[in-house]
Structure formats: C-alpha cells, structure tokens
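Structure ticket #2291
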Amino acid sequence: MSTAPLWIEGSFRPSADGGAGFQAWNPVTGRPISGEYPISGRCDLEAFLAAATRAAPILAEAPPDAIARFLEEYATRIESHAVALSGLAHEETALPVRPRLFEVELPRTVKQLREGARIARSRNWREPVIDTAANLRAQRGPLGKPVVIFGPNNFPFAFNALSGSDFVSAWVAQNPVLAKGHPGHPHLTEALAHLAQDSLDVAGLPPGSIQLCYGLEESSGFALAGDSRVGAVCFTGSRPAGLALKAHADSAGIPFFGEMSSTNPVFILPGALDERGEALATEIATSCLLGSGQFCTKPGLIVLPSGPPAETWIGTLTGLFATAPTAVLLAAGVRDRFEAALARWAEAGARRLTALRPIAEAGFRAQPALFSVDVQTFLAHRTELETEAFGPAALVLFGVDPTEMPHLAAGLEGQLTATLLSAHNGADEVFYAPLATVLRMRAGRLLNDKMPTGVQVSPAMNHGGPFPATNQPGFTSVGLPGAIRRLSALYCYDGIRPARLPAELANSNPVPGLWRLIDGTWTTGDID
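Resolution: structure written out below.
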C-alpha cells in the first residue's frame, strides 16, 4: 500500500520517520478507504519547523498584493474543483454533498478566502494608531514565526487546517502555516494541498509558507505545540486533547487558541411555550440533529419552565427524536465518545426518554437520544450533566421556575452560544432582561428566537466564548478581521524618523481605504 507524501517546503515527499501509517475510513460502510498516510515523528517535525522558520521573515515582508493573490487563486481553484472535492469530503465524512458540502460549506470557505484577500489588500487588519503629539505610532504585524493549526473533523472545508478561518487569519497576518490535517479526511486535505501549492507558485511566495502533516505521534504533537519556534497554536477539537496541547504551549509561552467544548444552552420562557410550543419543538429537534448533531453550536441543554405545558412539550420533542433516522457519525472514535457521554448522563441521574434500539446498518452509526433531568439532580451532578455529547442528543432540564433561570445560568460553564426563546407578544419581557444579563457573560454569542446552529462569516460574528468553549474569551475564530488579531503582534514605533516608518504609519496614507486612528479619530485621510 502506497503512503501519501507530506508537503514540506514546496515539495511532496515521504515521511523521514518511516513509521506505520493510517487509513481514512468511510463512515457509511465502516470500511477503510484505499491509501495510507504517514504518522510523523521528530524527524518530520524538525523539517516542518526549519522550513517554516526560514520562510517567516520573507513572508513577513511580502507585498500585500501577493498575499491577496494567493488567497484569490486558491479560492478560484477550490471553486473550479468543487464537485471532486465535495465527493472526497463526502466519502471520508458521510456529510451530504448537497446541500451541506457543495452548496453551503464549500462556498462559505471560498468566501472566507476572498474576504481575507480583500482585507490583505486594504491593510485594515493592521489597525494603525498614530499619536502625533507624543510621536508614537503603532500597528499590528506578523508574529515572525509559524502558526500551527490543528483542524477538526466536522467541517472538512470551513475549518480545515489548510482552508479554514484559522488558515486565512494566519495567512493575512503574513505568518507561515504548519497545518496538522485531521486524520478523518486526509484525501481531501491532500487534494487541497496541491491546489494551495499551485496558488503559491502563481503568487510568487516562498515554498515554506505552508507545510502539511496528516498524523502526529502524541509526543510529537506536544513537542510541536511547545516548540519555541512556533508563534501561536490554533486548535479545534475535544477538551482533553485541547488542554493537553495547551499545557505544552503554555510551558513555552506560546499563545494557544482552542475551541474545545460547548453545550449551547437554550432557555425557553413560558410565553414562548404557550405561543408556539409545537413549532419550537420542531426547530430544536432539527437543530439538534443537523449534521448528525456534530456541530460545535448544537443545542445540547434545553431548559424548560415549570408547569403542565412543559410536560406536554417534552412528549412532543421525544416523538421527534424517536422517529428520527439513525445518524452516521464521522468516525468510530466519535461514536464511542458519544456513547460514553450518554452513559455519564445516565449514571448522574438523567433519564433516557427515547427507547434504545439495536442498529442493524453498517458504519459508524448512533441512535438519536433525548434525556431529561430535574433541577435538583442537575445541580447535584452538574459536572457530569454538562458533559458535551457530540452527536445527535440533547438533555432537557425541566421544572425550572422562570425567576430562578438567571441563578441556574450563572453556574453554567462558558459557552459558544446561549439562546433565549421568548413570546412575540411581550409576555416574557419580565423574565428576559435578568436572564439575558447573566447569559451575556456566559457565552460568546447570545441569540433570541432562532437556533444557534450555523455560523455566519461576518465581521460581527463571535465564534468564541468563556472557558471551556474556548480558552480566550476575547477572541473569535470566525469573522474577519477579528480572527486575524489573535495571530498578529502589536508593533509600536517611538520617535522613529518619518523616512524609517512603515508605509501604513507615514503621514501620507498609502491606501485610499485604510482606516487609521489619528489622535483619537478614525480617518482615511493624511496627516497635515
């Protein structure tokens, strides 16, 4: 069986470590896909880091037009290969080609790349600040070191280590990228690498600007996260893996940006339940089961007000979960961790509302599951019951007095999202403000009367939140230029002579659309 090559300094070459490789698996059939990929160790790691370190100062000085041209070329090439790429992603993840991959995720990825190109050309990510009285000038710039990106399995395009938001953010900030592709979709990632290499050639940028490995020995992953030659680490995945990598990054003083866990609570206020309970049940079930429940923003905890309407509503939601088809999960490991999370819920006192049925189909499948728990049990075992079940499941917390919801919310872990569903006729206004005030501090994105699944590519988006949703609550991994700030350094120039200043900090604005904060006022004008 042939082993696919690594991408190092502009060439595709075999692993120097020579260890055993791995194969991708088709989640629908449960069978391996032809082709083996290397698991890299210390020799490959040294080659990755050495190449990226050589490229860093060259990329930091590259013209913004070259950075933008790469992103535009890459977006165009992905678009032109959309059918084949979507097919590869489907085979490796079981995510549907239409509409999910071809019509939603791939266009979103292309949009991110092109938005990155626009921001690179405008230079607005640099956020120049000028204090003329003190003769101080500052702006954002490259880290001067490579950014390591650990990509997840559930978004093979939009969060891929070679095409996602972390990748675009690192690239616009002119940092080399060391991409750790997810082992769940290596064929797709390899195909993206060839398109990226062609785009680098067109843009005339250094070959070491991007490196790619497919698998890492655990010790090598830790060594990479803690190597002093690394400028930052971006990670999307499970909390245990993220915290282990973060510990090694922290030991070397390397900024770590991890998206790790979120149950995304949904609070249903009594007026909403009376007004449109059946419709809400359908919306919530659809959101929970979308993509087999493998969205990081999936509603995992549903908080219901006390009273008879809630009991009836639980029955409606249970019926929707019970009649939903068996879900195909991304990998055997995802299925096993999902079942383990449900077992922890049950051991902590949650009651399974959907009957457990045997699964006859092949592949990595799970049965949609709905659990319920009362307030007393939840408060007594909240650590276990706040465990994220990454898959088609939700936990309903019932019997909560609406006036007590703020107190309950205050004890929740940090979340990516928090949702309030309220009556349109104003019946819930007395409950809304106290609860929203608390939830605003517990989640990166607060939603009203809509489901949290789905993340818009917008400069106003926050795809982050307090720990353990992420470990950096002041940053987002989606939405430019906000996501770029994570992967930039702040450069200050004190008393530097005009001829020695970067163009963005000169008296004359070098780009008509560049916004600069001059003496407290944002302007695109020059300094007189």
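Closing remark: The domain at 33-260+476-485 is CATH 3.40.605.10 (Aldehyde Dehydrogenase; Chain A, domain 1).
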